[in-house]
Design brief:
It is a single chain. The chain has 290 residues and is of the alpha+beta class. It has one domain (12-283): Sandwich (Jelly Rolls). 22% of the residues lie in helices and 17% in strands. It has eight helices and nine strands. The chain has helices at 12-21, 32-51, 66-69, 83-90, 124-127, 245-250, 258-261, 270-277; strands at residues 23-26, 61-64, 94-104, 138-143, 155-157, 184-186, 193-197, 202-204, 213-222. The strands form two sheets. A six-stranded antiparallel β-sheet has the order 1-7-4-9-3-2. A three-stranded antiparallel β-sheet has the order 6-5-8, with no helix packed on it. The relative contact order is 0.22.
């Protein structure tokens, strides 16, 4: 499950686009073979969930803890075409705090209204005091199905809204209410990846097409923020030793010491060493300073 070496971080153009819009598209990040492999993994988990009667009434699956649920997805944790975006933005002392794999078949007709626009982070958005709130985490969305047209369960975003703490919404979530001004559906081919700031206001479009939506999300945050995923038993799993050290770090498996999570011992953190060995610390990017 190891990942090939990557030597390039985020470009200045990518950084400028990300800071302006709150997201960037990484076109063709996965090969056709990779798409097929990871889509097959999602299909396997879907059949298990179906057999256990754990799908939604519409037959969709939203399964948390992506790698725990589907170990064959582990190479996506630090994929060489996408992971440089993560460490370029939030540095070496990171882990995956939240992940999920989704499969949404087409739905037969309009569902009842529900306003689902949100920022990631849960209570962070109630309890942090600043305006705008800090970034804290970033997310990668790996598209394993064709959402090159709207209405296929596309990610909907409001470009530039990551620096806005509040948008207007309905008094009750189950009321008819228009999308926020400036909202778009992000179109993507299978194999494309969307990298986005957790603060961007986003939602999912309904899938009224004839294409089944398949996508995997990984959210990355500093290691001093707690993990939501179910990962603490993973070192006992048979496939754990097949992971590379950075993947083990990202699954929170290198230390139970709180000071270690704070980054007090950089040279004991695999990603720090990986970057240092390749001279990838960027003086213009403060999170990467030693």
């Amino acid at each position: 499950m190891s990942t090939p070496t990557q030597t390039l971080g985020m470009t200045k153009e990518q950084r400028a686009d990300f800071e302006r819009d709150g997201f960037i598209m990484l076109k063709g990040a996965l090969t056709a073979d990779e798409v097929a492999t990871y889509a097959a993994g999602i299909d396997r988990v879907y059949e298990e969930e179906k057999a256990a009667d754990r799908l939604s009434p519409q037959g969709s699956m939203h399964k948390l803890s992506a790698v725990t649920s589907c170990p064959e997805l582990a190479p996506l944790l630090n994929h060489p075409k996408t992971f440089p975006m993560v460490w370029s933005m939030i540095g070496w002392n990171v882990h995956v705090y939240h992940s999920h794999l989704d499969k949404h078949p087409p739905i037969p007709g309009r569902r009842p209204p529900r306003f689902e626009w949100h920022q990631d982070g849960g209570r962070q958005n109630r309890e942090l005091e600043t305006d705008p709130r800090p970034r804290l985490s970033v997310k990668l969305a790996y598209w394993l199905s064709d959402v090159s047209e709207p209405g296929r369960g596309n990610l909907k975003v409001v470009p530039g809204s990551h620096k806005t703490n509040w948008i207007e919404g309905p008094p009750k979530r189950d009321m008819e209410w228009p999308d926020p001004p400036g909202a778009i559906e992000v179109t993507a081919d299978a194999g494309d990846v969307i990298f986005f700031d957790r603060r961007i206001w986003h939602a999912r479009s309904d899938n009224y097409s004839d294409v089944t939506r398949k996508v995997v999300f990984f959210g990355y945050t500093p290691r001093w923020i707690t993990v939501r995923d179910e990962v603490h038993h993973l070192p006992s799993e048979s496939w754990w030793n097949d992971l590379d050290p950075v993947q083990q770090q990202l699954l929170d498996g290198i230390s139970d010491n709180g000071d270690h999570h704070w980054g007090h011992w950089p040279k004991e953190v695999p990603l720090y060493n990986w970057l240092a060995e390749r001279d990838l610390f960027d003086a213009d990017n403060p999170p990467l300073k030693a």
